[in-house]
Amino acid sequence: MLLERGHRIKKPHKPNCFCKELCTSRKRGESLSNARSRLHAYAALSNPVYLCQLSYDPVFSTFMLCTELEDCSKVEKEFKNEYSEMAEKLRLFSVEMIEQCRTTEEVEMILKHTTGDLYSHFLFPQLILAIDCEIKEFVTHPNCQQVLRSVWLGEWHYWKKKSFFSQLMWVIPHIIQLPFMVLLYMFMPWTKMAERMKSPINKFLSATASYVIFLILIIIQTSHSMVTRGPPSTGWEWPIMIWVLGYICVEINKFWFQGYQRYFSTLWNWYDICMLSTFVATFSVWLWAYLDLIESDQKYLERRYWKSYDPALIGEGLFAIASILAYWRLLYIFQINSYLGPLQIRLNLVFYKD
């Protein structure tokens, strides 16, 4: 009845708000009555009945309000338990809403719903928002996971029946077929085989196969020892440069798609930047070594007479560092495994536990 008459609960200002309208006096300290008034207001706003009656998108409102409550619990330590309890109830409420879905279409309708332009370029905006708000109970719910798995596999329903070893061996044919698949996708995208390549699992396998080829090139390059001054001249440097240039383009595209805030909030993106920067630095030093060789004309000088800061030695060291970083990046790919992925998460919690 009150809602029909236009009565609404006014949203309180956050504890760390110092706006000129109402919160200027907080610089001198906040009274207990104001703090409790905010607590009671949030308790009313987080009521599931109120959210369902007032909000056009209860799931979105639940996620945003849950984030605000977590922020309040970090600022107002005195009422941390109360705010955390309200946030936990909202998480359970979001899980209860997704539990009401009985079909895949209903789950997709919730996950694909957008509010404004926020995350509208993603396939499942609500799921991305839940990840950003750290609503783990919603993300890990079986209904969400089932929809994600069906989208991930596409037409490859037989993939989940394979063992880990069989899945690993599936990458080998992909390595052989990769050049033909790329040409097919570029020049004949309307074919049925090219359509199958658009599935996320196939894109992942193709990316993995490409990265395995990249590592093989690095192994071949590192197996040749330098006996002359100047840049390495095995002939494998050019394919490595092409691969690195391709990965740089991938990172630029990822940055453009995700935005700077989301892109730089992922540690693996920072890792890729460091790895690719090391490769670019290596190529630059190789160019320096080539120019230095032309100037000095001491190609066959014995290694023991080389200067400690010789560009050939610097390039060799940088390439070794870049190679190690490239090998360690396999951990990022192994996250897809149901055993190695959770193991990495547990290790992260050990080293970065709050």
How far apart lie the N and C ends? 45 Å
Helix content: 55-70%
Largest sheet: none
Q: How many E-type strands?
A: 0
* Rg for CA atoms: 27 Å
Q: Could you tell me the mean pLDDT?
A: 79
Q: Uncertain spans, ≥5 residues at pLDDT below 50? A: none
SS strand fraction: under 5%
**Which geometry do the CA atoms define?**
globular
Counted by DSSP, the helix tally is: 18
Order of helices and strands: HHHHHHHHHHHHHHHHHH
User: What is the count of distinct domains?
Assistant: 2
Instruction: Give me the secondary-structure category.
Output: mainly alpha
Describe the structure in your own words.
The chain is mainly alpha-helical. It folds into two domains: about 30-155, no CATH class; about 155-350, no CATH class. It contains 18 helices and no strands. It has helices at about 30-45, 50-55, 60-75, 80-100, 105-110, 125-130, 135-140, 140-155, 165-170, 170-185, 190-195, 200-220, 235-260, 260-265, 265-295, 310-330, 330-335, 340-350. It is globular. The two termini are about 45 Å apart. About 15% of the residues are buried.
